[in-house]
Amino acid sequence: MLLAIETSCDETGVAIFSSEGKLLKDYLYSQVALHSPFGGIVPEIASRKQLEVLYPLVKMALGEVGIKPTDLKAIAATFGPGLLGSLLVGVTFTKTLALTLNVPLFAIDHLEAHIFSVLFERDIPFPFLGLLVSGGHTALFLVRGYDSLELLGHTRDDAAGEAFDKAAKLLGLPYPGGPVISKLAEKGDPHRYHLPRPMLDEGNYDFSFSGLKTALYQLVRGERDLAREDLCASFEHAICEVLVEKTLRASRDFGVPRIVVAGGVSANQHLRKLFMERAHGEEVFFPSLHLCTDNAVMVGYLGWIKWMSGESGDLIREPYTRAVYKRKD
Ligand code: KG4
Ligand code: ZN
Predict the structure, then answer these.
(1) What number does CATH give the domain 2-113+292-308?
(2) Does 125-287 carry CATH code 3.30.70.360?
(3) I need a labelling partner for 279 at 20 to 30 A (CA). Which of 6, 11, 85, 298 fits?
(4) Residue 319 confidence class, pLDDT cut points 50, 70, 90
(5) Are 2-113+292-308 and 125-287 in the same CATH fold?
(6) Ligand 1: which atom is nearest the Cα of residue 165?
(7) Ligand 1 pocket: which of 134, 173, 266, 291 to mutate (most atoms within 8 A of CB)
(8) Is the pLDDT of residue 311 over 90?
(9) For 72-82, what is each residue's pLDDT tens digit?
(10) Ligand 1 first shell, C-beta below 6 A
(11) Are 110 and 80 in contact (CB under 8 A)?
(12) Which ligand is nearest to the Cα of residue 160, counting in written order?
């Protein structure tokens, strides 16, 4: 059995896998209601809550599967990138458990876990392009294997999810902004307001979303009778169009016709629809909705892959807040 833990931000995830890689239990505790009044995540609150919730959740998961801690033969935990306080809770907990039980502890990278979550649900041959769109990151990878990710581009400022969250705050909508904006956008006209398409025509695979937020601010400030649904639809369309067009361009440039889209923003229905509309011959894969946002299943799956490939574990590694990925030359 393998125990997997995700504590990189404001979600506490616990999953248990059988040695054959079957998911036996999956728990997720979300702190969203705690942070919502602040319009974003408060790191100090997040880590304290992680500490409070993690152990009872693990105990409950073991109890429901009907196993003892000594039945665990491997452990996987998110080591980064994320909020240091939150990460430290999961990393310290799992290091202690791994040392006590004398089993390997696999350090899982949060971005990689998001991308490979799609492979937990279906077989997709390598190579493929991996577009990771979450609240903390936006990055495009060329993925040749589980241990081979080359960074093609990333955001130079705000992440796509962060842009949704900041826009929601600007419009007086609750956190997290993505689902709320997307719901309002369903009834709106995406062409009503003109918003920029940052870096769309630049010959690289980087992104930038902070200017979009400023453009939205200027619109909101300058116009009295704003149609909120149209504004949300126009904003959502601008973000999605840049993500879709730049990813499809990379797919054609590198001759890699398979695309995996993962992370919280991959739950966005307009993004999914636009990829399907604009793709010509490329296959685009998304996780099921419950695997788009943070969870321990993706951590457990990647941990299980490392365990099965005979890796020895990462007990001496430390958690990290920022990731450094190898750039493709
Ligand atoms: O992957 P995730 O759970 O956490 C990070 O690793 O950051 O992503 C959370 C982000 C938030 O910014 C949230 O607004 C966004 O994903 N999100 C969405 C949707 N659902 C969640 N953005 C757009 N449309 C959605 N339906
Ligand atoms: Zn995430």
Answers:
(1) 3.30.420.40
(2) no
(3) 298
(4) very high
(5) yes
(6) 14
(7) 134
(8) yes
(9) 999 999 999 99
(10) 9, 134-136, 161-162, 164-165, 176-179, 182, 263-265, 267-268, 293-294
(11) yes
(12) 1
Q: What pLDDT shows up at residue 216?
A: 94
Query: Does 40 score more than 90 pLDDT?
Result: no
How far, in Å, CA of 182 to CA of 14, rounded? 28
| Residue type at position 264 | G
Position 115 scores a pLDDT of 98
What whole-number distance in Å separates Cα of residue 73 and Cα of residue 277?
45
pLDDT at 223: 76
Residues above pLDDT 70, as percent of the chain: 100
Handedness of CA 52, 58, 59, 61 (dihedral sign): positive
* Model-wide pTM > 0.90: yes
- Residues around ion ligand 2, judged by CB within 5 A, are 134, 294
Measure the CA–CA gap between 279 and 106, rounded to whole angstroms.
Answer: 36
- Mean pLDDT calculated for residue range 36-40: 87
> What type of residue sits at position 281?
G
* Domain layout of the chain by residue ranges: 2-113+292-308, 125-287
Q: With 90 as the cut, is the pLDDT of residue 207 above it?
A: yes
Query: What stretches of the chain show up as alpha helix (H) in DSSP?
Result: 32-35, 43-65, 84-101, 110-121, 160-170, 177-185, 210-222, 228-254, 269-278, 297-308
